[in-house]
Queue: 4 jobs
Job 1
Amino acid sequence: MQIPVEGFMYPNEVELQWSVLIVLYPFLTGLVAGAFILASLERVFMVKAVKPTYRLALLTALAFLIVAPLPLQLHLGHPERSFEMYLTPHRSSAMAMFGFVYLWYLLAVLVVEIWLDYRRDIVVMSQCTTGWKRLVYRVLTLGSTNISERSLHIDERVGWLVTVIGIPSAFLLHGYVGFIFGSVKANPWWSSPLMPVVFLFSAMVSGIAIVMLLYMLMCRLRREPIDMDCVDTVAKYLFYTFIIDFSLEMLDLIHRIYEADESFRSLDFMVHTRLFLSQVVIQILLGTVLPILLIGLTQVVKLAAKQRKRIYVVAGCLTMIGIFAMRWNVVIGGQLFSKSFLGYTTYKMAFATREGLLTAIVLTVLPFVILGVLVKLLPPWPEKKSAISSVAVAAYGAD
Amino acid sequence: MKAFKDAGHLFRLASVFLVGGVLFLAFRGVLVPRSFGQYGHYRGNAIKETAALPISYAGHQVCESCHADLLEVKSKGVHKRVACEACHGPLATHADDPASVQPAKLDTAVLCVRCHEANLAKPKNFPQVVSAEHSGGAPCETCHQPHSPAIVAVAGGSQ
């Protein structure tokens, strides 16, 4: 398969090494960090209105975090060797140290916070379920059925501490991804100290948007009324973070245009040709400006709940597309031009290959499947069968 | 001791992490090769192991000691700085025992374009041809002498 090349490319630049899976990776980790930061709003910053999304946000973060390393694994020629990163870490490599950031965030922050928050439910369910489910819950209790008021209070305090530690960790997790791109000094499209910050805020935007969408979807599926107060507050935060994110991206853009270094003409040409659709139309106009205007509308004009809901759904979906396009333009865009600034290549996405479109689709759907299982196992909303649980609490929580 | 009792589950969680950490260290102890880090961020023994591999290239001086006639030709031509095994491939076994190991015949239609096919990334002054136009797939040998390929040299004797 001949790859169409325009102008002059060095031989090793013709074929793109970082495929759609590497686009997916920052997209997924961004959702993790964003969802977690939304959850911490309730916990640390005491925004009570977003409470109904708290647990859902945590589970979403976990589901996406579990899938996040898979695109990287599939990209590697020898995935089994990636484990060596933990055995013999090279301290001078940002990519190598990222393994520890990931592990820290997964095990020390997310899993612990979820466990502490769900401990009461886990204990209750280990009593009132049967069969394999009971076994799962029994294991999850770690053999302690103490859900006395004092112990739950301790959980609450420790959970708070974990969240406080978790916020910088979430920043670290996604800032790190931006840092890795931002420190590739050979690539002018990436090399910018703003990169980690831009990645972070776009992560928060996408994380908040997906939790908002998932919350509305879950309410729909459960035939429960949507807590408009909650969704309004989430949308408001989405609006604010989006504005910061947009300003940062524009700052980056204006800085590049004004600085106009030796790479500028080449990058400018690319934005006007190969990346016009994905960058200008999809990322900036449809994926950023339009959702900001839509949510902005709900902030200025008084609209009926039904209309607001519709706007949130449309704006949320556009946001997700826009953030994905941003990752695409960073990762793919950064490989389309020659280091000589004299030529451009093309990205040919395969379909049913290890790094093809099909794999990307599967990896996008997978977190939702995991989330489905997690939601079944650890329902993020107050249980309906409160009678059973109150019996259980009476029996086991009374000491 | 009541506070202690109500935090019991936290100690259990902590011990799960502790067990995980100990298991990790144990695995690490088993999996990381002994000689790792001896000289740098790699397996020290790798050097000895690589050194013990059988040699496959003899080096052009060895070839030249027997094929002096060819050296005579080659050293006057434009390929004087191209080593024998860059074209003939690794031939240490042949150099050790020329009678029983015969080098494979080379197909110049494939061999020469490896270095001479025109490519924008090559330095402008390196001799290169678009083989499809230049020879149309014919073996380069039909016109060029592999060990002294310059045609001017043959025709004019100036080189």
Job 2
Amino acid sequence: MAGLELLSDQGYRLDGRKATELRKVQARMGVFAQADGSAYLEQGNTKALAVVYGPHEIRGARSRALHDRAIINCQYSMATFSTAERKRRPHGDRKSTEMSLHLKQTFEAAVLTQLYPRSQIDIYVKILQSDGGNYSVCVNAATLAVIDAGIPMRDYVCACTVGFVDETSLADLCYAEESGGVSSLALALLPRGGQIALVQMDARLHQDHLDTLIEAAMTACKGVSKVLDQVVRQHLQEGSTLRE
Amino acid sequence: MLKSKTFVKKTRAGGVMKIVREHYLRDDIWCGSEACRECKQESTVLQADACIESNLCPYPHYVVPDTNVVLHQIDVLEDPVIRNVIILQTVLQEVRHRSAPVYKRLKDMIQAKEKLVYTFTNEHHRETYIEREQGESANDRNDRAIRVAVKWYSQHLKADGLKVVLLTDDQGNKEKAEENSLVVYKFDEYVKNLTANPELVDRLALSKDDKAEIISSKVLFPEHLPLSKIQSGIKSGTFLQGTFKASRDNYLEATVFVQGDGAESTEVLIQGLQNLNRAVHQDVVAVQLLPRNQWVSPSSVVLQDDGAAKDDDMDEDEEEKALRISAAEAAGKPTGKIVGIIKRNWRPFCGMLNVSQIKESTRHLFTPADRRIPRIRIETRQASTLVGQRIMVAIDGWPKNSRYPNGHFVRSLGSAGEKGTEEAVLLLEHDVPHQAFSQNVLSFLPKMPWGITPEDMVKRQDLRHLTVCSVDPPGCTDIDDALHCRELENGNLEVGVHIADVSHFIRPGNALDKEAANRGTTVYLCGKRIDMVPELLSSNLCSLRSNVERLAFSCIWEMNHNAEILKTQFTKSVINSKASLTYAEAQMRIDDTNKKDDITESLRGLNKLAKILKRKRIENGALTLSSLEVRFHIDSETHDPIDLQTKELMETNSMVEEFMLLANISVAQKIYDEFPDCALLRKHPAPPPSNYDILLKAAKSMNVEIHTDSAKALADSLDVAKVDGFSYFNTLLRILATRCMMQAVYFCSGMDSDFHHYGLASPIYTHFTSPIRRYADIIVHRLLAVAIGADITYPDLMDKHKQSALCNNLNYRHKMSQYAQRASVAFHTQLFFKSRGILNEEGFVLFVRKNAIIVLIPKFGLEGTVFFDSKDKAGPSLVFDEEGPTLKVEQTTFHIFDKVKVTISLDDSNIQHQKIRMALTEPVIPGVSVAAPDVEPQAKKPKVDH
Ligand SMILES: [Zn+2]
């Protein structure tokens, strides 16, 4: 039989969502006391932990320092237990290195690095459980951690993975959809200004569909930003009540 | 966003992997009923007043069929009487996994507005989702899910005075439903009580209880292995998986095609009922090879399963024995037995009823028109009306203690032997889509009156001033090509091939495009054409008729007088053809030296160049093969064939052909250069050497040598093959050579590396010149239009996988249309001979078989078999020598190419398989040959010479 039916004629996806609906997003900020900032975020069954240190002095080779802004150092890893088959190498493989680089580029676009010349900001993200959209979940978790660390940003960076199937854009793909032959695209957005921090796509897609897909991704990112905003506000409220 | 939805995790363990998936439950899934006031739905499907004339359920109600009812009773469910149906998502998914054809039909049914079928997504509804319980099988869980959904529906609609009826054939499910106080009926019980359409009862598939009655307790066949065992057997190599192809000539024999690694595939021979083990043509099966000492070779005996129903005691033993003896003579081929069925590929079959000898009986045998399909036992109360009609029957199952599969009546096509019925049969049997175009499709046609607008002229060259003309067979209304030739100032020649610009009218992805893509080709039957695109396009707007302005796609070359191409240009254009000629008219103009007008000069230029092109092509090793094409003169009033002649080829035929080939090659190169990954091309593989065996043997018997190392060698040796005093020999040899060839196929350049066209000796080839009647050409037009910047691309055009899938469909449709065409010629040949009585004609032996010779009658292009053995009486002594091959009948030996005389008559003793019967008159063999008929043409019975 032909694989899975990703979108039924009634408009439901494999897990019961409609095309534009996101998975359930749940998050907590400040989960670690030692770090400068931290956050835990679940987007459906994909779960990520982000930890931020800095800004602090450059460690290691001083020559890397930039005189007009801070450098951002990102490290992405996956827990060995995060996928159905145990992972042999949690970080340092080609995929993780690429992902680290993408995260770095994303946050260089969002963080006001010029405020901290000659310093460094470290962002560590670990996927604890993987069910599709790893990059997006990492970005969203890291955003919360950066905010928790009190590092100023232009705006939230929100990311979402979208796919295209049967002339329809699907928002926030899960693993079954990502592996089911959908051309997927990951996009990170600064929602208020509508600036795109990063677009990443490996699959082939006809040019005619690109605009609709990016449009769908931006809408989804805006949806994510609303949820993150709520999490931050709630966190602030809790924090202020504690202090009183 | 998802606040309202609670959320459970569904864990599925498959193999060693544990897969965790989210499963969202919603409360915004509505019931789809017009009567409901609770749901906030925008549109509804199911009627408030859902009544059907029934003794059982006279109240308004909706029906919910379970999975097995959908799978087995789809013929009844499709009837327009049954409306207001709820299909649960659980059912839809199960059907999708279990039968692709039924799933397709179910989806069509859901889409048909007048059927009022609503799909309820119960698996994602908060109140109807259930989890699998400990120890519960997946099937039981699904049955329970169906019951829960029905329960929810009945409560949901109670206030609105509507009932919901569960239909199932499963006794256990029914009892459990009754415990839950649901309204539930057996499907046949429900249908038998419908007063609206009593005829529906015949279409019911047999349920399990009925089957038990019919079949004897005796087990006739070995058990089929369960799928799990088959899979492990295939993995370990004990079994092979392949497609079952029944033999057309011998019902006790079949072949299984096993696809090996790569392109390699093997054939496994299956002989005898036990080994065939209930596999039906086209099923995907598992075979086990027999030990090498039991291997046999395919028999050349023709065996047909006819006569009265064999009541389950295998009296075929004798026939099987005959088979084995004849088979044991030669070294064996891999032989095996069917151990299990991986996938059934049953479809409804056309055929006729053999009414049971017992008058009151309601069980009858059905004989399919396709000889490869076994006879099917059906139950019907209308046998007396169905006698002499062509009907359709579907198979329900084949229990191991039944000699024949069980099935049910689907519908009647009309009286056998009538032209309309027979045409319907041959279209259905060859899977030719022939329904009238739907309103949706027609809505994409241009609005009339149509004219060329200034927007059309952007990116188009105005070629209306050129002296373009078309040359086609007489009566052609779908003219897709036109030509011109003129001398340029520099002394060179400009030659243009102008092809109807169909892709201008058929835009990618709309309903019209999809319909054409599915049809794939126009099918030409005798006196009837089944169009690929609606008539407005095929016979009017796209047809390049004379003296009207038409849009075209032009391929224009600058050539010198040696027909060497100096420059090639492709452009969209507007032309105004100056004349639509027939081949004969064009020929007359060329030959008439007094004519000096532009059209004639243009034709002469073309003709001259075409001769040079042809010569060059043949020097390169292109083959010219023969097949006798027959055409009928059809009486314009009765539409009966009145005369029959083989197609005559004129110089102008080959003139047009030559330029079409040239255009196709030029375009193929262009689109491949531009789109190396997704050009749609056509290739013709070289045949494997063994294909030529029969040709070599036949030629050798006449002391002629044929070389088959390359197409050129073959072409050259065919050219010199001559036998004194036997002028027809060369044609016969070419006919034989044609039979050795492989089928040419469409393919996508990104999916293949071998592009060679063997027959045309061209490294690359495609189809560009007939977009009105071939869909491949439309795709090629689109690719070329993008390549020259005249049109834009669209996603599917650039997707090599989608294009490859399209090629598969096109190849299938082309093959089927050829078969349908041949079947139509055969049918008209029969009509023709029916009116002629018995004829005595001269023919040549084309093939020699173990018990027959196959004779070609050049006068009619007709091939027929002369059998030397018969069932009723002792046959003559037959000695077959495979080396020759020769067949010695009594004292006379037959070789290939022997000249014989035969009588031709129509054998209508079996109305379903009316056939042309040939009997030998010369050479005279006592006891075998018959006397030549009297000159009086209306004599009916051949006189047998004893
Ligand atoms: Zn409702």
Job 3
Amino acid sequence: MTTTISPPTALSSVPAGFDTAAFEAFLATRNEPGWVSDRRRAAFAVYQAKLGAPLNPEEWKRVDLRAFTPGQFQLGAGGASPAQFSTLLEDRTVFAGQAFHVDGAGVFDRLDERLARQGVLFGNLADLVREHREVLEPHLMTRGVRPETDRFTAWHAAFWTGGAVLYVPKNVVVNEPLHSLIGLSAAGAADFSHTLVILEEGASATLLEETASASPMAPGLHIGGVELLVGRGANLRYVQLQNWNSQVWHIAHQAALVAADASLQWTVAGIGAKLAHLHQEVALEGRGAQAQVNGVTFATGRQLLSYYTQQTHKAENTCSDLLYKDVLRDHARVVWRGMIRVDKAAQKTDGYQRNDSLLLSPDCRADAIPGLEIEADDVRCTHGATAGRVDADQIFYCMCRGLSRYEAMHMIVEGFFHGVYDRISVEAVRETLSQAVQRKLGIGL
Amino acid sequence: MNSLLKIDNLHVSVNGKPILKGVNLEVRQGETHALMGPNGSGKSTLAYALMGHPRYEITDGRIEIDGVDLVALEPDARARLGLFLAFQYPVTIPGVKVADFLRHAVSNVRNPDRKEGEGLIPMREFRKELKARMEALGMDVEFARRYLNDGFSGGEKKRMEILQLAMLRPKFAILDETDSGLDSDAVRVVSEGLARLAGPEMAVVIITHHERLLEFNRPQSTHVMLAGRIVENGDATLAHELHDQGYAGVRTRHPAIAAEETVEKTEEALVAKA
Ligand SMILES: Nc1ncnc2c1ncn2[C@@H]1O[C@H](COP(=O)(O)OP(=O)(O)O)[C@@H](O)[C@H]1O
Ligand SMILES: [Mg+2]
């Protein structure tokens, strides 16, 4: 469906780019508590220091950033007219709360009154750092996303614009999912949204997040951060559906910490963007922690979609299970570099990672590089990667049943993704992903 | 009017190697034919060529339905004209549910002008029909929700082929060794199922080595292939004879063609050694 959102007013005082002048002008518009500004200043210093430093080649070697010119993008570049976003999730289900951000500014949020009374927080980070310091200060970029990691994390920590915060107190169960929409509207706008989810012990929640562009051609920049802090025995399902237009640069550092006996189901979908690089790490911190990671990627045209995933087992009896499936067409390129790390203490670990790529054209390319680093001796870790073309016999078989060549191909593509959909417990997500893929395939248009 | 499938002087090569060397065959809607012949004589090649498999190159001859030349048509267009092949080795399509697959197939074949993305046959009507057909074939209706041939036993795959035939109701159905690899109960179910489906609207070409399928579906005509040609035509008694006595007699009656068969075998043996 289409959602019309009034955009934020432009902050004309912030110049384009991310130099010191831009940073100071940006800070001046924020009016934030001292602890927040102090952290920004510290991060900005790291950012400046890291700008000249090389990036970790293991993570960045295959990501060509030569055409990337951050100076063309601007914070606070709100537009004049209401923006229309064709959201994929909006109509799928009943949401307990919604938070919308456009061009880096929070434009709307709501939360069911009943949940608010139970102490659940859901809204815009920019507001909540003022109102709930006690909840946010210990967690905001201290444990999950660490600013000093590289230039992108530091850049994000210095300039974060807002983003969805979900806090669920001890033993509170939120049954209906929450919805977050991150939009880009004005040409050249930058979004530095930060998603922060904190589940206290025994809490349970589902957050469905999607990114969208209001116009098909407006260039945009997303330097994002996601932190999922899943407390002891808590249960989180988090989805991020990246569905920008093909002119957006998307670089995000996303980290989950899963405590003892907690479980996380994390689904990422990469549909849009000109270039996307996702650093996705899951740390299993307490005994019995579990994480399932699902990836659905469909790259076409000249898109480059890159993933750097880490599953780190830090405690005994932890389990991680990652399955990524990519479909590529045209000249698209997908890179997946995955790593399972098992600390010495993490005996009886069960780690799994797998990436399957389906190549629809001769000029696309998929690189999948799994890896294991295991220090414990009593573990079960397996990994695998496959890449293949659509099987001519499958196409022929489908065509013998009256399906056109394209219909056959599309059916095989959808079937390929079903291997991931089947793992996702939220029906609305399965349907949304399937629809997003169909749209991109051009079915029914 | 009864439709006519006409195969005229059909020559087919695979990887540049001639396999079919002038096949002639006419099949009318409503008829049942048996196509027999030793392994490697070209039966599956004929079936694939009829459906338009891209690896089977037609170097000469024609395939027509009611005067419409099929040779230039894609397999889906042939299916929409009423041609159907039950595969000797059905293909697995992971992640595609039997019901979804068949709903698309049925929609296209019943509405040959349908384009991708256009309306499908109504769900309720489709489900009802599918359920009835599955029950008639003694299939668990749960199969509709499974992925097409994924993890199916040999027998389940063959039954799935017959289910598709039942749903698509083609004018011309070719069954390529649908009865092989089945236990006798399954052969009976498939044979009876086919007999119930066959009628004035459908022609069936049964490729088989066994008798059972032909007992329930008595052929008007039996054709015998040898080294890429149809060398003998007869009635149901010919099928019976071949089943009892094998192909030695056929080879004796057609020594020149049988010689081609052995030459091929020798060539293969030489290639294998080299
Ligand atoms: N895809 C193929 N590639 C190479 N050779 C083939 C292929 N299909 C059939 N042939 C050859 O064509 C001949 C006929 O095979 P086939 O049509 O399968 O016979 P039948 O079904 O009667 O057993 C055999 O010599 C076989 O080796
Ligand atoms: Mg055969």
Job 4
Amino acid sequence: MTTTAPAPNAPDDTPVLTATGVTMRFGGLTAVRAVDLTVNPGQIVGLIGPNGAGKTTFFNCLTGLYVPTEGTVTYRGTDLPPKPHLVTQAGIARTFQNIRLFANMTVLENVLVGRHTRTKEGLFSALLRGPAFRRAEKASEERAMELLHFTGLAPKRDHLARNLPYGEQRKLEIARALASDPGLLLLDEPTAGMNPHETRTTEQLVFAIRDQGTAVLVIEHDMRFIFNLCDHVAVLVQGEKLLEGTPRTVQSDERVIAAYLGTPFEGAPGTEEAAEVEAAEAHAAEDTDR
Amino acid sequence: MNPKNPPTGKTAGITAIPRIPLPPAAARITVIAGAALTLASTFLAWTWTQAFPGNLTVTGYPGGLQLLTLTGAILTIAHTLATTGTPGLRWLSPTRSNTATRHLALGTLATTWYTLIAIAVQLGGIVNLEPGGYLAGATSLITTLGALALPSGRPTPPPPPKPLPSWAEILIIAAAFGLGLSVLTYGIGTAYGELFTGFLLLTGFTTAALAKAGLITRLSRLTATHRRVTVTAAFAAAALFPLTQDTDEYTLIVVNILIFSTVALGLNVVVGLAGLLDLGYVAFLGVGAYTAALVSGSTASTLHIHFPFWAAALTGAAASLVFGVLIGAPTLRLRGDYLAIVTLGFGEIFRIAVGNLNGESGPSVTNGPNGIPNIPNLSILGYNFGDTHTLGGLTLNPFANYYLLMLLVTLLVVLVFSRAGNSRIGRAWIAIREDETAATAMGINGFRVKLIAFALGATLAGLAGTVQAHVSTTVVPEQYVFAGPVPPNSAFLLAAVILGGMGTITGPLLGAALLYLIPAKLQFLQDYQLLAFGAALILLMRFRPEGIIPNRRQQLEFHEPPATGGPIPLTKAEA
Ligand SMILES: Nc1ncnc2c1ncn2[C@@H]1O[C@H](COP(=O)(O)OP(=O)(O)OP(=O)(O)O)[C@@H](O)[C@H]1O
Ligand SMILES: [Mg+2]
């Protein structure tokens, strides 16, 4: 049942992301224990698990915000140093579960900050304002506006990030992450707190991102979202990877249901599984609003 | 409010009930009549003896503090008429806000009563007041009561300003700067403490009233569209200042204000843009000043060399830069409070080390506590700053020379601040200030970017220090303390930035001017200065945490873009 085989539709390139044996201990607590995960080019991979399973901690290990106690993270075949700015430089961008925008900067400026790694002008060119500086600023702004159009935030370019409604703040986080032209985008609960309509547009957005050639690794408690979207799903329970596989295999695995509901349903007939997943979903949705 | 449409306060209104029950029209008449009588009272004698400064004994001609009351009364009348839509005055109050009228009435009341109380206290009792004084006191009180009776409630939103031809807008900007400069010049030139206190009271309330009346918003819209003109007008106005002075006295004050505000603006890069709390910033000024003193050819300098000014300025700035990097590299890995403590420590280490490099406790470099005196005057291309020059009929005394040089340095620092703030690196600073974790996750190398901010701040302070050494002709370690009675010191610099408005250009300049002038003018505050200063900061944090000049971002916070106009454009580096 524990499928470690590559997803069926993965092209046989080098994987975008390979995490091997990632372990994170906080004192006595092991939040993530020996997790392996591979994301192949063009894939949307889901990471699910009950609250406190260690999903966000795993993301933090991937992006260098935490230095993993053990294990390595590789991006397109090269090992990543555990420094957030170097990880972003290499091509992994992320969003945060509890939105972390630059609240007092405008929407456009937030995205421009995302361009930081892909631009070079330093202090001196800023002070001298030569033609090269102006050109680079103009190009950054054009790219940022492109992303704002892509995420539907263009009309709000001069608003302060803090004044955006919740759903748009999440979209702005995505736009800001995309500004670094990442090869892999990590989304931590991108639809938390969104209404069904916004969730739907976010789904479209993630597909569009994938179609532009960026692989996506997404944490989400909304099972319908995950199963619609992902080519491959991994389940994390109490810091350990319980199983991974196609949405279909994961969806029908009893251990997943047990992990979410707490007690295994002895001898439940297959037809009721869908209902249980529904229940798990509702439960999870409540919990995300913490 | 328009009389044809009196209950505007109510229709717009959350709290339309006036504090004093009086129909709006009656209240308005009370205000106008009261202010008119106050105005008349300034032409009477308020006291019988000239022992109180400013000669308030003359009937038929207002003098001294009476002029301030007179100004307050005129403004109150004009604004009240403006709120009723009187043709020709309407521009005075785009928002038609009664709160602005109240502020003006309160300003007049405060100035008048302050004068009366000061007379009574100084001359020993209220018997020293003449009937004119009683009249002024009573009528200003009536005016205020009338103003309090005006309906409150939210002012109606300002109608979109009529589009003016751009030459007219530029003229308005120039007029506003001219007015601002003359108010400031008047404040600097106030001959005695009482007049300065009255001036502060009146300008404080009037500024609040201008903001409530919507004039400041209008002006900032204009300056945002004509940035270049604004900057030019500001510096032209500033450059004209020494020409309005016949003595050295005030030019010296203004040179020192300029040094103080330039250093405060440099600190604003570190504190306002990058969000790094630096409590030892004055040390960088010291490094610049000491370096310039050492290479100035002063007889007391241990290095017997004499650099031309450009070389001395570069050396001073470079020395500060090196010092900044040396201090920044180990400390900038710390966050928040730790950084503040460590920079505080380094600031003190600088002062104490300089005090000990006297050949006894350490190598002989700085003459220890005696410092380096006899720093010669600057001479650039044969133009000696110590002489009085006449250029095309204009007389420039030594301090005016230094003032103009310092103004160039200020202009440079303003340019650096605005350009750096509005660029990739400036955005990275602001991002770090807003959320360091998110910023590093966006690919910003936090340490590197913070070090650049720290080093840039240090360099700017060092540059200002090289001029300061020549202006003060002596450098001693005790000029560069953490907190002391004479600005600039680290505490006052930080206070200037916070008081003025973090992340803005005009904020620290204005904050520094106020923090320099208030202690210099109010001698009686001398003993309680730090106490008063602390109290003022607490009040400020309570009532106006964004500082006198709010950052445009903070303005945006409360001011969502109207459907038509779009938000006030974020001007360069108003980060
Ligand atoms: N910095 C930290 N120090 C100590 N413990 C931590 C730290 N960060 C996370 N933990 C612990 O690690 C465990 C996993 O937390 P994590 O936030 O990764 O869960 P999650 O799967 O993202 O949950 P959720 O679905 O609620 O977001 C939790 O028990 C949490 O308390
Ligand atoms: Mg989480």
